[in-house]
Amino acid sequence: QVQLVESGGGLVQPGGSLRLSCAASGFTFTNYAMSWYRQAPGKERELVARITDTGDSTNYADSVKGRFTISRDNVKNTVYLQMNTLKPDDTGVYYCRARRWSRYDYWGQGTQVTVSS
Questions:
Q1: pLDDT band at residue 22 under the 50/70/90 scheme
Q2: Exposed, middle or buried by CB within 10 Å (0-12, 13-18, 19+), for 66?
Q3: Which long-range contacts (C-beta less than 8 Å, at least 24 apart) are formed by 20-23?
Q4: What digits encode the pLDDT tens for the residues 71-101?
Q5: Cα separation of 54 and 112, whole Å?
Q6: Is 114 exposed, middle or buried (0-12, 13-18, 19+ CB in 10 A)?
Q7: Which of 79, 83, 60 shows the shortest CA–CA distance to 14?
Q8: Staple 22 to which of 55, 85, 96, 111, CB 3.0 to 4.6 Å?
Q9: Separation CA 7–CA 80 (nearest Å)
């Protein structure tokens, strides 16, 4: 069965860094675009970063450009989100998403990121 398992979240001080991982299984990872979303308390879920199936193109929310980097390892079937210079506004539950066209759409369970002094 399809599984997306996020890890790496936690509590970090402003200005700190975290690296999130999403381990994928149960589908052909190399055929899927991968994304990270987040949902802050009381707010809607938003796209943070996206990477194409081959890893040749990425895009980011304006709020994280220059601070976050999405990458993928198609051998390990894992997508990463390196988060640097974290801000309190980065706090939220971060979700991994795998998508191929519109009919194949999978979500992980989420991992909590809290940025606080």
A1: very high
A2: exposed
A3: 20/80, 20/81, 20/83, 20/94, 20/96, 20/111, 20/113, 21/78, 21/79, 21/80, 22/78, 22/79, 22/80, 22/81, 22/96, 22/108, 23/76, 23/77, 23/78
A4: 999 999 999 999 999 999 999 999 999 999 9
A5: 28
A6: middle
A7: 83
A8: 96
A9: 10
Q: Which residue has the tokens 């706090």?
A: 91
The amino acid occupying position 24 is A
Gap between the Cα atoms of 93 and 73, Å rounded: 23
Summarised one tens digit per residue, pLDDT across range 39-51 is: 999 999 999 999 9
* Residue 28, Cβ density class (10 Å: 0-12 exposed, 13-18 middle, ≥19 buried): exposed
Joined together, the tokens standing for residue 62 give 């304006």
